[in-house]
Amino acid sequence: MGLPTTIIEDRHMLLNYLYTNFFEETQFSDAIGTTTEDLHALIDAKVFPAPSYVYDGSGRSMSFVADFIDQQTYRFHLRGHTDWYRDITQLGLDSETRARDHFFSRYDHAKNAFLTSPLGAELQAQAPAVADQFDKEHATSTWGHFLKGVYGVCTRDGRPESVFLKQAGVMFIEQMIGVGPEKLSHEKTGLLRRAVDFLDRVESDFAPHEAPKASRQRCIADVRAQFFDMKAA
Questions:
Q1: Same-domain pairing of 73 and 136
Q2: Structural domain boundaries, residue 30
Q3: Which residue, of 82, 111, 138, is where some domain finishes?
Q4: What are all long-range contacts of 112-120, with beta carbons under 8 Å and residues at least 24 apart?
């Protein structure tokens, strides 16, 4: 008895998403010019993020000649993380401390640039408490999530700059929508629309099975529907 059609379709959609946005580990190793063993060593040394997705796949081929059973684990790394590997090798980021310091030099530069930009300044005026949340505890959590591959899931390129921008977009939007559509002035609604469009550019689309419960649904699709009467395409 074969698999139900819906399961086959869901599997196809997931694998299509993974192979479109990520490199399977052997492909990733080839792309950066190293071996999977050396890549694992970098992950173990806490200077490189773990794969963002791990897929356990199985299959069976049957014919009158012989049967073949395949059971494999596939690890997927975000394509954009090739840039982080380049930084590691070119800048000699051979310890967690050096890698972390470099990550936050880029992250903090993006934070300062955004918070002093016109959009960032307007958002801070509406939700001043958000900036205070980027404290030492938040930094520790951010670095831990980066090493676990989390930001390969929720940002388009996994870069430190995009990590901050994704976090800021979600945090400011969640603060602004807490009052509900009827409480926002025309001016604040326009600001919210700009924040949503901004977040849309840095946040990933997420895998099909994740999309309904991801922050993209909550902070982009739902906000557009509830506040701007825009339906998803």
A1: no
A2: 5-82
A3: 82
A4: 114/164, 114/165, 114/168, 119/194, 119/195, 119/198, 120/168
* Helix/strand/coil percent split, the chain, to 5: 65, 10, 25
pLDDT in the model for residue 68 = 77
d(CA 71, CA 19): 18
Using the CB atoms, write b or e for 118-155: b if 16+ within 10 Å: ebbebbbebbeebbeebeeeeeeebbebbbebbbbbbb
| Residue 88 forms part of a structural domain | no
Mean pLDDT across the stretch 16-23?
96
pTM over 0.70: yes
Please report which confidence band the pLDDT of residue 8 belongs to, taking 50, 70 and 90 as the band edges: low
Tell me: do 58 and 108 sit in the same domain. no
What pLDDT is stored for residue 182 in this prediction?
76
